Amino acid sequence: MTVATDALGADEKASPAKDSRRWWALGVIAMAQLMVVLDATIVTIAMPFAQQDLHISDGDKQWIFTAYTLIFGGLLLLGGRLADYLGRRRILMVGLVGFAAASALAGLAQNATELFAGRALQGAFGALLAPAALSLVSVTFTEAKERARAFGVFAGVSAAGAALGLIAGGALVEYANWRWSLLVNTPVALLALVGAFAFVIKDIPAPRTGGYDLPGAVTVTLGLISIVYGFSRAASDGWTASTTLALFVVGVALLAAFVAIERRTANPLLPLRIPGEINRGGSYLIALLVPIAMFAMFLNLSFYLQIVEHYSALKTGVAFLPFPAGIVVSAGIASAVLPKIGPRPLMLAGSVLGAAGLLWLSRLEFGQSYASALLPAMILIALGMGFLFVSMQTTALHQVEAEDSGVASALLNAAQQVGGSIGTALLTTISVQVAERYVRNNGAIDHVMQRAAIHSYDIAFLIGAGFFLLCIPIAAFMVRDKPENLLEGDEHAVAVAI
């Protein structure tokens, strides 16, 4: 006998897929996700203005960015499990209220301490929002074609958010004030909160037979914070500095302890069967690698446009517009063909397109035009990112039981966060070293500083292309889901047999 014991509210059990509110709910969920993704980059252009206004030292300015990423990355798994145990809709709304308040605190900060505290709180509530949002997509859309379309929208928002953050940040700094790059989140979060009340389906929290896995929560949170902070320190202190190495050693030891705890506890924070399934494991590995490649483009093109080409903050943001536009197109294509061809061809195509785009950028030379040197490469990378994000997010949550969807979503976000931290630290460190060596070896040529900068960007683009290429064997050998498999197991998101 099969009884519908789903993740949705009692009034939705009979036919949640037929509830017309689910598409409005997707808009609300996408708005919450966009806010989290935007916040990681929207302050990038505002940082120099905040530093000057609040008299923040050069040594402390990194905390405007790091305070957010550290707490966000460290608390993701805990946030995902709270969504499973306390209800995804409830955690989404708690996250929206907290994010609105934290953004107001940061935007109205009168000193560095208040700004850093506000950014850290944004990270904490973002760690609730991100896994709750992705898991709500998983349990709300259960029919294969609609699920692919919903993940296409969500993936497009996730992948394009970083570029949109640069555009929004540039516009707000140029026409308003740096504070509005933070304050803008408050009305958006409150609007999303109203939408969540109206449209997001109430879900039933996963049943718990035991207590919370506090040892696991502590070890994984401190381990992720140590790893993320270690990469942040590597960018400023160097990879072989004692502080950097100590943070890495402590982080790895804590994560190893976490795995040992999860293997033995009866009520684990992260059931190891989630990353242990080969398709999902492949998706998590790709989720770790793709942000490194993506940061190769964002970080270095931002510097190139503003430092070498002397673009204004707003013009730099506008120059990135083809990227989110391309992602919207490719995410739409991916969501349409995913149920027919499966995730592996899309992952392979996305990896090849991304690598081709970064290889194109690696040929950048002094004096080239935007239309010939940047635009084609940006379009190739955008098309690849859309394919990768749709297939990656779908596979990472495919056949995950409803009671585990929050923590599975959190693991995907955690992989992307750590990958972004690796990309920032690795590429920043290498670019600086390459530029310094170029100046030493070519000090007599004209425009040596600009040429050195471009040469360092080219090397970073080549390294980014390498990370895209690493995704190819992972997708080829680990992602085995066939199109027909996407139609199987989706009932696990909404029902269990009794």
Write the topology of this structure.
Blueprint: E1 2-3, H1 21-41, H2 47-53, H3 63-86, H4 88-107, H5 112-140, H6 144-175, H7 180-183, H8 185-199, H9 214-237, H10 242-264, H11 273-276, H12 278-308, H13 313-319, H14 322-341, H15 343-361, H16 370-373, H17 375-397, H18 405-441, H19 448-478, E2 496-497
Antiparallel strand pairs: 1-2
Low-confidence regions: 1-18, 487-498
What integer is the average pLDDT?
82
What is the name of the CATH superfamily of the largest domain?
A: MFS general substrate transporter like domains
Helix content: over 70%
Number of discrete helical segments: 19
- State the strand order across the main sheet: 1-2
Rg over CA atoms: 22 Å
* Oligomer classification: single chain
Number of strands: 2
Largest sheet, strands/sense/barrel: 2 strands, antiparallel
- How many structural domains does the protein architecture include? 3
The CATH architecture of the largest domain would be Up-down Bundle
Shape: globular
Summarize the helix and strand pattern as letters. Answer: EHHHHHHHHHHHHHHHHHHHE
Give the percentage of residues in beta strands. Answer: under 5%
What distinguishing features does this structure have?
Growth Hormone, Chain: A, two-stranded antiparallel sheet, 1% strand, membrane, 19 helices, disordered C terminus, mainly alpha
Task: Characterise the protein shown here.
- There is one protein chain.
- With 498 residues, this protein is mostly helical.
- The chain has three domains: 18-202, Up-down Bundle (Growth Hormone, Chain: A), CATH 1.20.1250.20; 214-268, no CATH class; 270-497, Up-down Bundle (Growth Hormone, Chain: A), CATH 1.20.1250.20.
- The protein has helices at residues 21-41, 47-53, 63-86, 88-107, 112-140, 144-175, 180-183, 185-199, 214-237, 242-264, 273-276, 278-308, 313-319, 322-341, 343-361, 370-373, 375-397, 405-441, 448-478; strands at 2-3, 496-497.
- A two-stranded antiparallel ribbon has the order 1-2.
- Helix 3 packs antiparallel against helix 9 and helix 12 (278-308) runs parallel beside helix 18.
- Mean pLDDT is 82; it is low at 1-18 and 487-498.
- Keywords: Cell membrane, Membrane, Transmembrane, Transmembrane helix, Transport.
- InterPro entries: MFS (IPR011701), MFS_dom (IPR020846), MFS_trans_sf (IPR036259), Sugar_transporter_CS (IPR005829).
- It is a multi-pass membrane protein.
- Its main location: membrane.
